[in-house]
Design brief:
Elements (H helix, E strand, L loop, with lengths): L1 E3 L8 E3 L5 E5 L3 E11 L7 E8 L16 H5 L1 H5 L3
Antiparallel strand pairs: 1-4, 2-3, 4-5
Length: 84
């Protein structure tokens, strides 16, 4: 499976609702490598649903929540290691 981010005109870098660049490339395909659902150990009864995408070009990376080095990834590192 795959996905993409639709862009406007010649816009190269996708921006979030606040105008920050996300690291995704507009009008570019990404492979869907994994889908996981984990129990949130910090919020009992709540589940987190995450997708792992791969950029076949390999020259950019998501830089928002759950991206490499993000606070979310650090907080849930032990939990995620059970699934990865």
């Amino acid at each position: 499976m795959g996905c993409s981010v639709k862009g406007k005109g010649t816009e190269a870098n996708h921006k979030d609702a606040k105008g920050r660049e996300t690291g995704l490339i507009c009008n570019h395909a990404y492979g869907l490598n994994d889908i996981i659902e984990i129990e949130d150990p910090f919020n009992r009864g709540h589940k987190l649903k995450l997708l792992r995408l791969r950029n076949p070009w390999g020259n950019s990376e998501w830089n928002g929540a759950w991206g490499s080095g993000s606070a979310e990834l650090k907080k849930y590192e032990k939990t995620l290691n059970q699934y990865i």
